[in-house]
Amino acid sequence: MSKYYKMKRNTSQLLIPIEKETQSLESYDIYPAFPLKDGIIEAGYESLAKVISKEKVVILDGYIGVDWDEVSSTLKNLIESMGFKIKMVNVNNFLKEESEIQKMVLPFLRDSDSIFGYRTTLTLCDYFDQSKIDGIKISQDYDITIIYGTGASQTKIKGHLVYFDLPKNELQFRMRSSSISNLGITIWNTPKQMYKQFYFVDWIVLNREKKRLLPKMDIIVDQQRPGNPTWTTGSAVRGSLSQMSTHYFRVRPWFEPGVWGGQWMKERFTGLNPDVPNYAWSFEMIVPENGLLLENNDKLLEVSFDMLMFQERDNVLGKAAQRFQDEFPIRFDFLDTFDGGNLSVQCHPKPDYIKKEFGENFTQDETYYIMDASEDADVYLGFQDNIDPKEFRQALEHSFETKEVLDVEKYIQKLPAKKHDLFLIPHGTVHCSGINNMVLEISATPYIFTFKMYDWQRMDLDGKPRPLNIEHAFKNLNFDRKGNRVKETLVSKPYVESSGPDWKKIHLPTHPDHFYDIYRYEFEGEITINTNDQCHILMLVEGGSIELIPNDYPSQTFQYAETFAVPAAANKYRLINKMEGMAKVIVSFVKDEAC
């Protein structure tokens, strides 16, 4: 088991256990789970084999990254040991030639030296040779025919559909170890280029297929634990998603070290691997990356967040569903620079640029909410009043070519950062967090479109230079965000919108370019909040713990720094402060005028 584990994953992060250990009631939960509705979570291939052995035709479909060698060989051996005669059909045999697939995806990968591509218009059927698929026949000479592999449902043969899912973090850990490759490709590329093809091609193609298949899935399997999957019925998962969409949900966060990473999370979040130099990020709620954990009899099963959006987007997003469709619009993530380093000097694309160049439907507008900060903490934001764009670009290019240190403050303002400050970073704004900040990044969902201009002359954790994107940046930088205008327009000015004897509702206005708004509720006892047909994303940013009571559903307790959401369909909910002192809760949602 340990040999297999090391071979399949290249990461310092721990593999999720099958059974959740007893969690301290006063600590951040790295494995938050929603109770499975009307079903049982099973563990292991043996129980799965017993169920599918009762079927005449079985379709084993699933996501990219699934270990189909393990799945097919293990199930074949188990079912044959029961005395059945099996025909195994590998759907990979029906793919188009690899050279043809490479040619097909190339237009969406653009520049090979860049991580940026263009969202594909391909569908899964484009990968298969239809003449080969048409030749598949179900032979009566076998007790069971099993068609397996990513895209098995493209055969159009009716059978018991078993879908194998894989969380995006585990997929990337396998990618880094060269254990998997891109869809229809057998040649391993560099991790960055493989990720690019996943993001712009494979995930889009396979998400469309996952959405199509979700209502038809008889069994859903979580294949992230080598040799020991967990599984349950499709109806149980769909029922749980339905219940989630009217009450609450919290995704499973995942954590990554980085060259600028800090020690704040490492010191405070129990259950993380301590044998890492730092933690730079926590993906608190980033829909394309995070998963949802379901729990039953202490067993855990993870499915992708996409499934919730595919099935329940109207309940989840309410009035915002018309604009954003299956895309969850807001993300929460942590950027930890405590005892770490500065982030890169960067900006993000304009809406028309990200649409034209990368095919995205909305852009990467951000804010920095300061969860915690040392007395010397700063944020770099906006330009100095005397900025000369031509001189700035020449200085960046000179620094890149000569490796000389750039005098950043000659060009960019450095503002002091205090706990509960909110810095506004609409598209085109030059910015980065300085050292000794714990940043809650509240942003629009796109998350890879960071145009780095300067990175303090350091290497990445792999010992290689971090790529810069000066050309992209200068097509998007807003040089009017300078001088006094920075403090006037890019630093939120909170005000009390309403209050009572022991509570305040404080508005933290965002920039007009932001489609989302931010409030902070401060209360000693309890408050009631209406969703107003919008999904609310929340976090306790000060205090010990709070209790959420959504509708008539059993209450749920959330700890300091945990991100959770209340769907639009919940209509209203109560928050109860479970500790002494003042609880402070951030709430973000789509502005009505942005729907």
UniProtKB/TrEMBL annotation:
GO terms for molecular function: isomerase activity. Gene3D superfamilies: Jelly Rolls. Keywords: Isomerase, Metal-binding, Zinc. CDD domains: cupin_PMI_type_I_N_bac. PANTHER family: FRUCTOKINASE, TRANSCRIPTIONAL REPRESSOR MPRA. This is Mannose-6-phosphate isomerase class I. It comes from Arenibacter algicola.
